[in-house]
Design goal:
This is NAD(P)-binding protein. Belongs to the short-chain dehydrogenases/reductases (SDR) family. Keywords: NADP, Oxidoreductase. It holds the Pfam family adh_short. The chain is of the alpha/beta class. 48% of the residues lie in helices and 13% in strands. It has a 6-stranded parallel beta sheet with strand order 3-2-1-4-5-6, sandwiched between helices. Helix 3 packs parallel to helix 4 and helix 5 crosses helix 9.
């Protein structure tokens, strides 16, 4: 049975201080189920601003690049304070330009930080939250892992090659986790945005040009929320949906078939 986020009691939104994360957090707050929404991010003043809007919005400061033990402590503290937590949205992300025609100008520290922010920290946090979600599964309660990838996970943009690669990794991971959790109450719902109104590009100086063609944040949020409420495992929006139809449609089913075949082979080899 397909279950959507409308069943959630408590949602953590990471990367909630701006853009997609902030907008989704506010939309989730307005669900009929009246969930508690925990907004996480690095900028305390923005978390405080959000928390002032409702007693069901709680701010927690977190740096997803802080390292494994810091993230382990964050997950432990969050679950101790909010034991009803049943959904996590991973919206943290940065985008950097790299031109490999000039390898001497490629900042490998910045590249590694982008990889950590956009992918490694997310895998780490998913792994750390999973014991809690598996306990909810034993109780018959649904839980939700909600990565936010990108249209660039499907068709990369060569001027942001590492960003596109990290989002492709998140996309692939989402499909694999969805197959692994197929027989559980743990749902993986991947949101795949197009170019959306945000602060992501401010440091690149491209915001004025991109603002002429990006999807308004309010429009994106409405469409993404519709998919989350329905419980769609893949939620491509805007031109991401067109690319998904061409390149990705049917991939989940093929991945699941491959996974089931591999499990059967393992059984036969034992």
């Amino acid at each position: 049975m397909v279950v959507g986020i409308i069943e959630s009691r408590c949602v953590l939104v990471l990367g909630a201080t701006s853009g997609i994360g902030r907008s989704l957090a506010l939309a989730l707050h307005d669900l009929p189920s009246k969930p508690t929404v925990i907004v996480g991010g690095r900028r305390q003043e923005r978390l405080d601003e959000l928390a002032k809007t409702s007693d069901r919005i709680k701010g927690v400061q977190v740096d997803v690049t802080a390292g494994r033990e810091a993230l382990r402590g964050f997950v432990k503290d969050t679950l101790a304070t909010y034991p009803d937590l049943d959904a996590v949205i991973f919206s943290s992300g940065i985008q950097l330009e790299f031109d490999f025609n000039h390898p001497e100008q490629v900042d490998l520290d910045a590249l590694e930080n982008e990889l950590t922010t956009n992918y490694t920290s997310i895998v780490t946090l998913i792994t750390l939250f999973l014991p809690h979600f598996l306990k909810l599964n034993e109780q018959g309660r649904p839980s939700f892992i909600i990565p936010v990838s990108s249209a660039l996970s499907i068709v990369p943009a060569p001027w942001v090659p590492n960003y596109a690669a990290t989002k492709a990794a998140i996309h692939s991971l989402s499909i694999s986790l969805g197959a692994q959790f197929r027989e559980t109450n743990i749902r993986v719902l991947e949101v795949i945005p197009p170019l959306v109104e945000s602060e992501l590009h401010d440091h690149q100086g491209t915001t004025p040009a991109l603002s002429r063609v990006w999807m308004p944040l309010s429009e994106f949020t409405e469409k993404a929320m519709a998919g989350l409420v329905k419980g769609n495992s893949q939620i491509p929006v805007g031109f991401a949906a067109a690319n998904w139809e061409v390149f990705e449609k049917g991939k989940e089913e093929k991945a699941l078939q491959s996974y089931q075949h591999t499990l059967q082979l393992h059984k036969e080899l034992k």
